């Protein structure tokens, strides 16, 4: 593969037929001037936010009353108000399609497979809406779900949104305290949980856990137990205030859905920060901001069109579930998978893609890396001819994994590395289907988002590494944080570093092609000798080595400075001897720089990660320094932290 050129370039036909191209023609009419390339289109979208977001509303066919004003107090952050006169309903926009075509296809590992048409989905939402209203649910009340990624979860979210209730979810593998740390703050009226779930071919009953949770959530009037393992009715009978989902909705006849149109900024979702440094922050997102931003990203950046088969591997505790659900608004069929992506082996998601004709295949950078290290070559074993886009997020996609996608998964495919977060329930930088894909680079900033890289003094940088910021307000900024009446926590989270500027907490740099490289979280940035180093730069080197399955890196306070410490999880049968340590240091020195070379390398048997699969450098840094990790419940594998406590080599 010629690394001097792009890894992939869209054909002339692909560029001509892209939704982004049609939108650009409309934007030129609105702007009153030519917009010859993506850079020009993006500049206009930031300079004329009123014109841009108004055009997005019209072009994407938002259902609702737009109102006269588009943006008020646009230079205030926070404080800007988009579409202040508008009235809309999020669920009405997602349920715009009807008929017998598939709205959702669900697989629970190799145990469960189900299909729902658009009419069947609307019927389920109608019954749920009636049930919720019978329980007194009203606009602003909360519905919380500890659920797998399955059709009932999306239907319940839509029913809540149809009334104007606020939805919040996590996955069923959360511990009792982890659930209470989240939902205890928002006091839900309705609670949903499964009778259990599948993972790695094993069933996990959660009825006992649900009982413990409900005992400490007195606000819940009704708990609905969804049948997944086959004993929902039995489980519900053992839990106070609980009823089997199927039995509960069967009491209501299918009827016409009613949608309560509410202000653009009406709360839709509460999402949670990872919670590894304390009780999770409750981030409140608006119905209008979420809808408009997702429509823009799906239609223009992801190229989703009606009838597409849209897949993202995610749990209900990760914002990518919310992002995936919005695909209904573009009339795509959602492909839902719940369980281990490696059961019974690493082919299960590619089996799903082939069988269902997936057109947009979304996953995590860690999954792609794991497939590579497992020696799989899906292009030789699977028919992936329908896959048009492969998307990666969760952590920076390493350059060798860009290459791996084109060498082993599919050659003619748009590889869209995307990055944003729970904080904005969307992306700051993502795919651009009319542009080439370059090794290791995210293609560009999202339309309408004034993404910049700033230095320590708050000056924009066209070259070099700095803080990722957004210098102008955008619709999917949070409404605020829950129980933060004066916005103090909200301001501290994003606007404390630079006044009136969103500081996202990513360490980033622009490329010569107008793309971006994310070097990791800036709060995990290493500073040996006062030089800022992104942890992803180290991972990109060591994770190329077959001896290393994965790594985690921290800065350890040492001798009035900071030294780099690298922890590695090794492949089976590999030992960390002097030769391997030397090879690791050489790889980092030559591939990154001498500054990146770790002072200490330590082998560990596991690496702690959050429920959404992200490694948690801050928790490791705290435990190495003898500080308490404040919220272990946020971790998928908290026991892994014990490997990092009292390591002798870190005392010298």
Write a concise synopsis of the structure shown:
This is Acetoacetyl-CoA synthetase. Belongs to the ATP-dependent AMP-binding enzyme family. The protein is α/β, with parallel strands linked by helices.
Give an overview of the whole structure.
Among the domains are: 117-260, Rossmann fold; 525-651, 2-Layer Sandwich (GMP Synthetase, Chain A, domain 3), CATH 3.30.300.30. The chain contains 21 helices and 32 strands. With 652 residues, it is α/β, with parallel strands linked by helices. The strands form 9 sheets. A 7-stranded mixed sheet has the order 6-5-18-17-19-20-21, sandwiched between helices. It has a 5-stranded parallel sheet with strand order 8-7-9-12-13, sandwiched between helices.
